[in-house]
Amino acid sequence: MSDKLHIVGGGMAGSEAAWQAAQAGIPVVIHEMRPTVETFAHKTGNLAEMVCSNSFRSDDDEQNAVGLLHWEMRQAGGLLMEMADEHRLPAGGALAVDRDAFSAGVTERLRAHPLIEVSGEEITELPTDGQWIIATGPLTSGNLAEAIRAETGTEALAFFDAIAPIVYAESIDMSVAWEQSRYDKGETEAEQKAYINCPMDKAQYEAFIDALLAADKTVFHEGETAGYFDGCLPIEVMAERGRETLRHGPMKPIGLTNSHKPEEKAYAVVQLRRDNALGTLYNIVGFQTKMKYGAQTEVFRMIPGLSEASFARLGGIHRNTFLNSPTLLDEQMRLRSRPNIRFAGQITGVEGYVESASMGLLAGRLAIAEMTGHSLPPVPSTTAIGALVTHITGGAEAKTFQPMNVNFGLFPPLDGVKGGRRGRKDRYKAYTDRAKADWQAWLAVTAPTEEAGAA
């Protein structure tokens, strides 16, 4: 078998792939160019640094596809889910983490593993031999991106990923804002009060929309196109789609009662979610933006409760590249023209921290099998991980391929289950029950072992 598995990129996917391989006895080299070569969005040289948000989204493994993805990764001994659970913060029904502690924990575990080496050089060309996983994510360096384009013979698709601002908790006016999760969701008081809410009446909302639309925005360079992924739209782009769009999106007031004025119904509500374990930082939920810095402070301080807000980080925007995976990757996640190279993470066209990490987990296991002379049966498309990999390696329409979060629409339909909104709860439970049984069965026949890795 090949001597080592080389992984380019130490983000979510690369970190999880490295862990899976090393745990199976495969020596791993993680090639991570940070902090020697910096990116626009990253602030540290740690592995698995969280950039856009501190949330892994819903942790409900019975009614939510991403919660099911959490469950599958935990069952497979995923390092990132272990670290997420260890550094969890109150967030209602979501899994949010202290991002700095999470990243530091992942970095410590990987660097301490006797079979993992972390190398700091930038990989600029596609390797011709050895076993490789490219998991460079949305901020793939220009040199490597050009090498990928040259190999695939096509322009890499791109969209722009916007980052939400972070506010210092002490600068939020709690005589105006209040703590509450939507519908008081959560089993503990901390979960039920995981969000800070800032209410707006109609006049305040209209003035906010006017300011948002008029604010100075980042101008794209010639030749760039703003093909945003709908799950991460800049707030001003949403506002441009209609004045009521935000009030039915990230600023929806439903399920919230102002503890200061319980008899008054807010016209719109801005939510802030805890961003660290100390509770000193809060990110503005859904407020990714491409406004210029000066405009951001002016516009966001119009939000009731944030008139004196101090920002630990303002929003930003960066280019996000991904492959047209249905045409370029085989069912083993290998580049068809160079089968010694696998791709994993966001660069394959999945969207989200957990989705990226899950594709790293799978790519790692597929590489383990190939390096030890084994073959794995396909991951059942009835599972969350299987649904994602099936989508990106052939289930999606290549001509219209766009980044995708995990969702039940990717799963094979179930016979005899009621459709429509009224049947949704029973249908989702049936999806997750089927997925759990199929995932456990797949793990039972494919689980890597240290003995296999050493063979």
From TrEMBL:
PANTHER family: GLUCOSE INHIBITED DIVISION PROTEIN A, METHYLENETETRAHYDROFOLATE--TRNA-(URACIL-5-)-METHYLTRANSFERASE TRMFO. Belongs to the MnmG family. TrmFO subfamily. The gene is trmFO. It catalyses: uridine(54) in tRNA + (6R)-5,10-methylene-5,6,7,8-tetrahydrofolate + NADPH + H(+) = 5-methyluridine(54) in tRNA + (6S)-5,6,7,8-tetrahydrofolate + NADP(+); uridine(54) in tRNA + (6R)-5,10-methylene-5,6,7,8-tetrahydrofolate + NADH + H(+) = 5-methyluridine(54) in tRNA + (6S)-5,6,7,8-tetrahydrofolate + NAD(+). FAD binds at residues 9-14. Residues 5-373 form the MnmG N-terminal domain. Its EC number is 2.1.1.74. Pfam families: GIDA (PF01134). It is found in: Cytoplasm. This is Methylenetetrahydrofolate--tRNA-(uracil-5-)-methyltransferase TrmFO. Its cofactor is FAD. One of its GO terms (molecular function) is flavin adenine dinucleotide binding. It comes from the Bacteria. Catalyzes the folate-dependent formation of 5-methyl-uridine at position 54 (M-5-U54) in all tRNAs. It comes from Pelagovum pacificum. One of its GO terms (cellular component) is cytosol. GO terms for biological process: tRNA methylation; tRNA wobble uridine modification. Keywords: Cytoplasm, FAD, Flavoprotein, Methyltransferase, NAD, NADP, Transferase, tRNA processing.
